[in-house]
Amino acid sequence: MELYLDLISQPCRSVLLFAKVVGVPFDFKAVDLSEGQHYSEEFGKISMLRKVPVLKDGSFILTESVAILKYIAQKYSSSVADHWYPAGLEQRARVNEYLAWQHTNLRLHGSKVFLLRSVFPIIMGAEAPKDKMDAAVEDLKQSLNLLEEKFQQNRSFIAGDKISLADLVAIVEIMQPVGTGLDVFEGRPKLIAWRERVKKALGEKLFDEAHEAIVNVSSLPEKMMREPSKLEMLRAKFQKLFS
């Protein structure tokens, strides 16, 4: 099995962490998004979506991180502990509920904060407008409130007493804005306690290794400046996205 990943990407981190923590063998195929490698002719033969992660299992190619996580859990169900993607109807529904919700909530808002704080200044040559930044941070706060109040409640993890794919996807998304220096855990003791349980369940060393790139995101400008033509293409996209 081959996994095409860039660990600056939160969905890629979720796939890497899951494959490693459950002991699934794979070949790591690095795709550097900051250098535009996903736009290469070679990668286009792997996925016309030109996004990571991508799983290639023999002749079978699968995109979208949530689909990949479920595929791994189900293909290796004999060796993957049930709590990751529970067989029980209600518990699995809880996991699926979170995974369906997060795309347009925590993922969307955490990504926007990350882009505005770390990528916007590189692409546009100026700091992000304050009103857009404030709105993005406020939206992120609201998503974090819902994570605590709706999805976690008083449980140790989102689907119960043990970690699941829902917790894994949630933590990597939260770490994205954290990598820019924004402490989204401040004033949230419940979320901090949950984070520590997730890290312990994954293994702190593995967690830290997976997040090394995002924690050191300050190296991103130098890498992106190597490809001025790609920078121009991204500038047009950013103008459309944040106009």
Task: Please explain how this structure is put together.
- By secondary structure, this protein is an alpha+beta fold.
- It has two domains: 2-81, Glutaredoxin, CATH 3.40.30; 89-242, Glutathione S-transferase Yfyf (Class Pi), Chain A, domain 2 (Up-down Bundle).
- It contains twelve helices and four strands, in the order E-H-E-H-E-E-H-H-H-H-H-H-H-H-H-H.
- It has helices at residues 10-21, 41-46, 65-75, 89-102, 106-124, 130-152, 165-178, 189-202, 204-210, 212-215, 220-224, 228-242, and strands spanning 2-5, 27-30, 54-57, 60-63.
- Strands 2-1-3-4 form a four-stranded mixed β-sheet, with helices on one face.
- Strand 3 and strand 4 (60-63) form a beta hairpin.
- Helix 1 (10-21) crosses helix 7 (165-178).
- The longest helix is centred in the middle third of the chain and has 23 residues, at 130-152.
- The model has no long low-confidence stretch (mean pLDDT 92).
- Belongs to the GST superfamily. Theta family.
- It catalyses: RX + glutathione = an S-substituted glutathione + a halide anion + H(+).
- It is an enzyme of class 2 (transferase).
Which key phrases capture this entry?
12 helices, alpha+beta, 2 domains, Glutathione S-transferase Yfyf (Class Pi), Chain A, domain 2, globular, 243 residues, four-stranded mixed β-sheet, Glutaredoxin, glutathione transferase activity
